[in-house]
Design a protein that fits this description.
Rossmann fold, 8-stranded mixed β-sheet, 14 helices, 18 strands, globular
Length: about 600
């Protein structure tokens, strides 16, 4: 079973019945200690994360400090292991951030019951070898983990602490994909792994939460088919096992690496979001409802009036990976963006449909972790600049690359986005029409893939992929003059990549296609990290996109920032973007 926020309600009706069949009052008991096991390889360890960085991410502030009310027992690492030697308060280990930190805080607040975490993880290990229950090899993690769990539980018995084993969180598979024997047998090995734990812990109904291999990492680009094979194995097991759930994680943040910025690990922010994913999945199984959206109680448009529909689409920055609502209060004049705008109908699907609205809601922050995208400032600026009704529909998948959005798709079919994207647009139009409105699709506003700019083959093909998307969308939507407003941030400055002039390629495409407007967003708020914009940059990007539309309606397009109070300097790149283009005037052919 694949778990999305939209499917949690349905999950409650089935999974709770299964889990509680032997004890109807089990989850009502808030005194018994609930024990959770965390295990896997480097992205379970928390590799390349830093506890000192937690303070940079408002939703998770404070998790660098010990959680005195949460018991923690651990064995982490391979040759040089870090062990707790018994129970200690939950805290970062050796300044490393694992998903257990945010998981524990959220579950403790929602479940109102004491919890304990047992963690055994080591980077670069395999399910087929190290974690093999029957014949462990390498670092022999299965017997080590089993001994850790058994000894930790024995200590609870000695202290006369009543407990129950509540769930097993597993994130692993990247290393199995490189072994010709382990890769095709991952589903078989995972099923055996799950059965062995249930047998050895004498918990036949132990629930497992299987974390997705994140496609936003560099391996999601250069090992697409290998990762697909492991994901397919994981999905096979969770589909057949009613007590196992597949947890999407590709929408989570990924650490920014050296060179062009790509990385193998979630890093600090991604690990904290990773933990929230597990917490939400667990809480759903015990009947805890997730916060619901504020409905659009009063339809904002007059009966029979026309509506302009604006479609926003893209990847990491269109999703708003590192833009936090709490930070809007620090931006002069932007504080009101956090409030629901009831005059603009908004619908969205983010993170490969991980989170999506139930119909139309007021325009408001809607990211999965207190985050938001350019849509807030986009809508606010449009509202003040053009007449008539405005509706916004946003479709993003930050774990995808541009080739996933092409009509032809790729050899990893579970990542193909084009058909779902077009269906999303069609349904948005039909829903507005069903309310009696005539609908004008004002344009598709697409921010080019950030990861694509950091990988040679992807950068080389970006213009070709974009052209195929735009052309096919016009055909499928029966709108031959549909405008695409394509924004591009400065491509990463990397010696090996700079020889690929992707900016010129996109310029050439826009020259040939009179209905594709190339917006060089080269003067956005400076990046704290390569590839990804933070809160001021996301606000500014939304305003730039909106202004590009406003200017295009007059027959002239001015590529300007329109948010000087947010900008402190231009981003410099050896690929030599001409920053004067921020004031260059283009004729928009009609």
């Amino acid at each position: 079973m694949k778990l999305t926020l939209a499917s949690l309600t349905a999950l409650l009706l089935t999974s709770v019945t299964v889990a509680l069949a032997d004890s109807p009052k089990r989850f009502a008991n808030t005194k018994t200690l609930r024990v959770f096991i965390f295990a896997g390889q480097s992205n379970m360890v928390g590799s390349d994360s830093k506890a000192e960085d937690i303070k940079r991410f408002p939703p998770f502030v404070g998790l660098d400090q010990p959680q005195e009310n949460v018991m923690f027992s651990y064995n982490i690492g391979r040759e040089d292991k870090l062990t707790s030697d018994g129970w200690v308060p939950l805290q970062p280990v050796n300044t490393v951030v694992g998903p257990e930190l945010s998981f524990a805080r959220k579950v403790s607040l929602e479940a109102k019951a004491p919890i304990a975490i047992i963690k055994c993880a080591a980077g670069g290990t395999t399910l087929g070898g190290d974690w093999n229950p029957d014949s462990p090899s390498g670092f022999k993690l299965y017997p080590i983990a089993l001994k850790l769990v058994q000894s930790s539980l024995a200590e609870l018995d000695r202290r006369k602490i009543a407990y129950r084993i509540e769930g097993f969180m597993w994130h692993q598979g990247e290393n199995d994909m490189f072994d010709k024997n382990f890769k095709p047998n991952y589903a078989k090995n995972l099923a055996n792994f799950i059965a062995s734990w249930r047998r050895d812990l004498h918990v036949p109904k132990l629930r497992f939460y299987i974390g997705e291999l994140c496609t936003k990492t560099v391996w999601g680009m250069d090992n697409r088919e290998n990762m697909y094979a492991i994901r397919a194995g994981q999905k096979s097991v969770t589909k057949s096992d009613p007590l196992a759930v597949y947890i999407p994680t590709s929408h989570d943040a990924v650490e920014i690496g050296g060179g062009a910025g790509l990385h193998y690990h979630y890093g600090t922010l991604g690990q904290l979001e990773h933990g929230v994913n597990y917490a939400d999945a667990y809480l759903s199984t015990i009947g805890k409802k997730l916060p619901s959206e504020r409905p659009l109680k009063d339809w904002p448009y007059g009966k029979g009036s026309p509506v302009k529909l604006f479609v926003l689409a893209g990847h990491r920055n269109m999703e708003g990976e590192r833009a936090f609502t709490q930070e809007l209060s620090t931006l002069p004049g932007k504080e009101s963006l956090v409030n629901a705008n009831k005059n603009i109908a908004f619908k969205y699907s983010v993170g490969e449909e991980f989170k999506k609205s139930k119909g139309w809601i007021p325009l408001e922050p809607a990211g999965p972790y207190g985050t938001f995208g350019p849509e807030l400032s986009f809508g606010a600026l449009l509202q003040g600049k053009i007449k008539g009704n405005i509706a916004i529909a946003k479709y993003t998948d930050s774990g995808s690359q541009m080739n996933d959005w092409t009509p032809q798709g790729t050899d990893t079919p579970d990542r193909n986005r084009y058909r779902a994207f077009i269906d999303f647009i069609r349904s948005s139009i039909k829903e507005l029409q069903s309310k009696g409105h005539s609908v004008e699709l004002a344009g598709i506003f697409y921010h080019v893939g950030e990861n694509d700019m950091s990988f040679g083959n992807y950068r080389s093909n970006a213009s070709k992929w974009l052209h195929s998307m735009a052309e096919k969308s016009r055909e499928d939507l029966a709108l031959p003059k549909l405008k695409w407003f394509v924004s591009q941030q400065p491509p990463p400055d990397d010696k090996g990549l700079n020889k690929i002039d992707v900016t010129s390629d996109l310029d050439a495409l826009a020259t040939k296609d009179p209905d594709l407007i190339h917006i060089k967003a080269f003067s956005l708020e400076p990046y704290l990290e390569k590839l990804v914009l933070t809160t001021p940059g996301i606000v500014e990007l939304g305003e730039m996109l909106a202004q590009s539309y406003v200017d295009s309606t007059t027959g002239r397009l001015v590529l300007s920032t329109n948010a000087p109070q947010l900008r402190t300097r231009a981003f410099k790149s050896k690929s030599k973007p001409d920053l004067s283009l921020n004031r260059k005037v283009y004729e928009v052919k009609k």
